[in-house]
Amino acid sequence: YPHLREGRVGNKFGKTLQYTTLDRDTNLDLPVIVSLVYCESSVLDHAATEVEMILTSSNRTWVISNSRIEVSVKDAAKRGDLVNVNHSLNGVKNTLKFRLATGSSLELEEFRAVSIKKLLYVWDEVSQSFIKLAGLDKGVSTVELHGYNGFDTHQQFLRQVVYGNNEIIAPVESILKLLLLEIFTPFYIFLIFTLCVWMSENYYYYTVAIIIMTVFGVSSSILQTRTVRECVPVTKTPIPCQAAVMFDSREDAHHTLFCGTKVIQTRTHGSTLVKAVVIRTGYMTAKGSLVRSILYPPPADFKFDQDSYKFIGVLAIIAAMGLIYTVIMKSEKGISPSDIAIKALDIITIVIPPALPAAMTVGKLYAQNRLKALNIFCMNSRVINVCGSINCVCFDKTGTLTEDGLDMWGVIPIESNQFKSPLRDVSQLSLGPLLFGMVSCHSNTIIDNKVSGDPLDIKMFESTRWILEEPEFTDTSRYGIHVCSVVRPPESSLAHNTEVPMEIGIVHQYQFSSTLQRMSVITRVLGTQEFIVFCKGSPEMIISLSLPHTVPPDVLSILENYTEKGYRVIALGMRTLDDLSFSNVEDIKREDVEKQLKFLGLVVLENRLKPETKGVISILRKADINVVMITGDNILTALSVARECGIIQSGEQIIDVSVVDDDSEKVPEVYFTHSGRFKPQEVSSEISNGQMKLLFDKDPESINIPSNYRFALTGKSWQLLKEHFPEVLQRVAVKGVVFARMSSDQKQQLVQEYQELAMCGDGANDCGALKAAHAGISLSEAESSVASPFTSREPNISCVPIVIREGRAALSTSFGIFKFMVAYSLTEFLSAIILYNIESNLSDLEFLFIDICLIVNFAFFYGKTEAYSGPLVKTPPLSSLLSLAPMLSLTLQLLVNILFQGICFHLVRLYPWYHAFNYESLTSYACYENYAVFCVSLFQYITLAVVFSEGAPYRKPIYTNKTLTISLMAMTLISIYITVYPAQWVIRWLELKVAEGYGFRIITVAIGFAGFFLGIFLERFFVKYALLSKFPKLSSGPKIKYEKLKEELVNYTDWPPITSKLPPMLPTPASEIPPELLTEIQFQISNELEGRCIGGVENESFEIDEINITKL
Predict the structure, then answer these.
(1) What totals of helices (H) and strands (E) does the chain contain, helices first?
(2) Which segments cross the bilayer (predicted)?
(3) Predicted structure pTM score
(4) Both ends of the chain: CA-CA distance in Å?
(5) Using CA atoms, how far apart are residues 837 and 326, in angstroms rounded to an integer?
């Protein structure tokens, strides 16, 4: 391009833009290209990230036809402000068609939008609301997708202005920013103030020690912050071109290539090229949704952290009172203002312990290292404490509770409309339709000379020991048509058989649809002229598509028998297409193929539980931890696995929650029905004169609300409850046990309802839920694990009780350290206030000995006490610092300390050798009162360390922490030595004025030990036994929303309103019902069914014991 020009231009925001233009070449009809590069960070002062969807960012290229583009933004734009965009070319307004998340579309010349969490919301004048912008995945028919051939440069530019660049930029925090975020917290800001006060008093020793501990704590936190999915080959096929069918991103996943997909093999018909249509870009893609869920997780505030800040506020009030008292008292004695200011500020630094953040960090780091030793890695040590208060755990099913794959159990063939005995060895199955269906009805393919595809399809095919081949598409000699693949038995060989070999060619595939619950293939056996359809899917669906006289009458009881045992059952059907020609195979509609099937039999697979699953679930249930299953699988399979592993225990009644929405203007209806209410033996069927009769025995069970009930529901019902019945949704979530067919978004919504729980999963579909949970535990080391604070290298759920156990120990440790540090600071504050009365104080080295040799020493080793190895108890540790128990515990210990400090302070004055302290000739703080208060306080700090070091049931006993025990014993001996017989260098160093004789010295040691035993008694007996054991509700603090609602439901004797009437199934579309069945098949329903079944007429369907009989 020879005609480049460069220049600079200013704008109304006072910023400078550098631009490059390309002149139009008159010979070549090229568009003008304008490149804007910002010389400064943003055109706007405050809105760089908020309007990045609208305004060009650095190095973005705009392509326009000619003339100008006009973009205007409000001057004071900030988060949430509206952005107006006008687009005009040559002075003529142009329109742009928007797709919205509701499925509707707008065509506007000017639009108003707001960017929230990387997504754009457009103002809709009709609904008078902002609606999320969508791509081509909403409200678009498959015919429209086939009709797209790209946009001209004008439309490209307009769409780029609206949708932004197709990029996902995840911000990476710099070390400096992480450092500042860690430092500028209330604790560390106060620490800086404290260090300044100490430096002014020349108190350098402890200042240096605190700086070292703080640097250690901050750097550890930053390193933790800075410190991934296995895939299965999937076959993707072109989306059908049908005018009446709307594209659905979930149902049409087999036709969709997702961001990050690696294409490993392509196959095409002749010279036909593949055309792909981009339906989503940037943060609207599946990968973008994952990144957004990580960037913007829902808030997970922890009660302990909230209360710690409130408690610091209480300490600040005490410090303010001490400051006022110090100022008044010292002013009355004529102390200089500068000394008053220093001493008053010093009181604040004594009351609020500056070493608290570092001490808390050390305790969590010990827990993190213990988890690491067990192959559990934690990215954020702050979350470890959260695990201690967890009383609910959600599990994904496949790959988490069960093995990743399925194992073939066997097949149940049919002969003369009767089930034969189950055949465990599928390779022994005789040649016939059932075997042909198993070897051909799949989406397997050959990759690197190995069969690849869905695990279920692979297991089913490999059990037959047949061989899969993929011929070249140019080879049509054997079948007269292109075939996708060919299957043949291992004995068959084209090279050695002179006769026609036994081969089946797969001519066309209809991919599996979760809504249709089936897949099918059109096949042709080599040497024949007819096409045969094999259809595989859920038994209830295949039964509904089969001719009634081909379905065994006891199919329901057989099916129920296997599903209740946790097996996964697949049914097979077939149909011969007599009038289908070669040319029409590709064009025939699915609904014209999948009907009037001959029922062939059942294929039974088992999804085995992982060996550790039952034991872990039992541990959690014994600890009264609510266990919930969230899965994308079928609800019957999920219920079976839940019963097998113990999530659903014997005696618990399962109530199905079904929400029926017929897409009309009526409000959806909610049905609560007993799961398994109609037992298999109560249902029988018979066919007489072309009519199917379903016969029920009389049900003696009355419709009563069981006392121990749990809910089970699907993702569809969850979504409708969320939209129309939010108050019911909360109750269902509290009592829910199995949530099936849940999408990744719905999993995250459920976790947000619970919030204070742990979520354990292994797949990318769990990322949002793992991030939203208070404690997410990933069993995968792949990319998706970045959403979870915990990652286990052991691919089973045995890590869950370990994390909870360590969390409880860490929370108990944090409580103990916090109470110890607060009690130490207040005890030291009491000592200072008592000595301030005589204008004395603790000397710098006395402060240093207490702060370093006692406090920092104990705090450093405090967290080394390991988690309790016994069973998990039903009651988790307290999570509220402001509840009655910790407040009472602190108060009692402080009362003991002030009592015995006061006794020593006054007792020393009674001895004849005592003489008063003269503060006017102040050269040192040494005095008898100083000695008495300092020495007795040494034992009090040791007492506090022992009293607040809790053992079982959350931590091991204190004596198992050898380093802490040795430290306590050593400091006790040193304290006795300082009190009774200190050396002269110790006296000079600490500035002590030791009492004359040994009488008072021994009494001081005795008072110290008396305080120790009294403190132990008050904590162990009065607080732990009398208060916590006898009045648990009084001392447990405020309940979380989940617990409150659970208690309320116990008192609701008339909820849920269980009905004997099962929810109606939506009418089957007439196009999917064979016309001959509508005229020949009638339902005969006895009077005993009245009120128990919706149906009885043509075109309707009904449900029996969770088995949907539809489309008959």
Answers:
(1) 32, 39
(2) 178-198, 204-223, 311-328, 815-835, 847-863, 884-911, 964-987, 999-1023
(3) 0.68
(4) 69
(5) 9
Helix (H, G, I), strand (E, B) or coil at 266: coil
Range 143-161 burial, b when 16+ CB lie within 10 A, else e:
eebeeeeeeeebeebbebb
Distance (Å, whole) CA 952 – CA 688: 70
User: What radius of gyration do the chain's Cα atoms show?
Assistant: 38
The CA angle 558-1108-668, to the nearest 5 degrees, is 150
* Count of Cβ atoms closer than 10 Å to residue 265 Cβ: 12
Give the C-alpha separation, 402 to 629, whole Å: 12
Question: Smallest Cα–Cα separation from 734: which of 653, 831, 628, 828?
Answer: 628
The answer to whether residue 780 scores a pLDDT higher than 80 is no
Q: Confidence class of residue 1 from pLDDT cuts 50, 70 and 90?
A: very low
> What is the DSSP code string of 74-131?
-TT--TT--EEEE-EETTEE--EEEEETTS-EEEESEEEEEEETTEEEEEETTTTEEE
Give the Cα separation of 564 and 648 in Å (integer). Answer: 13
Q: How far is CA 48 from CA 43, 58, 68, 129, 370, in A?
A: 7, 11, 23, 25, 43
d(CA 596, CA 259): 39
Q: Which of 753, 780, 798 is nearest to 790 (CA)?
A: 780
**CA–CA distance, 945 with 297 (Å, rounded to integer):** 38
Strand ranges inside 578-690, DSSP E: 598-606, 626-630, 653-660, 669-674, 683-688
Active site residue 248: no
**What does the DSSP 8-state code read for residue 24?**
P
In Å, what is the CA distance from 1052 to each residue of 23, 488, 669, 1045? 77, 62, 21, 11
Q: Are strands 110-116 and 83-86 parallel, antiparallel or unpaired?
A: antiparallel
Amino acid at the residue 869: S
- Residue 348's closest CA among 209, 198, 204, 203? 198
Give pairs for 271-277: CB < 8 Å, separation 24+: 274/238, 277/136, 277/145, 277/148
Top-ranked range on mean pLDDT: pick from 7-16, 470-479, 548-557: 548-557
pLDDT at residue 1006 tops 50: yes
pLDDT of 10: 43
Which pLDDT does position 171 carry in this prediction? 72
| Burial class of 52 by CB neighbour count within 10 A (0 to 12, 13 to 18, 19+) | middle
Strand partners, 761: 778
CA distance 769 to 788: 9
CA dihedral 916, 921, 925, 929 (to 10 degrees): 10
- Per DSSP, helices labelled H in 201-276 are 204-226
Residues 346, 396, 844, 851: which is the catalytic one? 396
| Residue whose token pair is 């960070």 | 41
Q: Which amino acid is at 670?
A: V
Positive or negative CA dihedral for 600, 255, 488, 594? positive
pLDDT digits over 86-119, tens only?
544 444 556 778 788 888 888 887 778 888 888 8
Among all chains, which residue has been given the structure tokens 């040791």?
942
For residue 455, say if its preceding peptide bond is cis, omega within 30 degrees of 0: no
Please, which pLDDT band fits residue 77 given cuts at 50, 70 and 90? very low
Give how far Cα 704 sits from Cα of 15, 441, 592, Å: 73, 45, 45
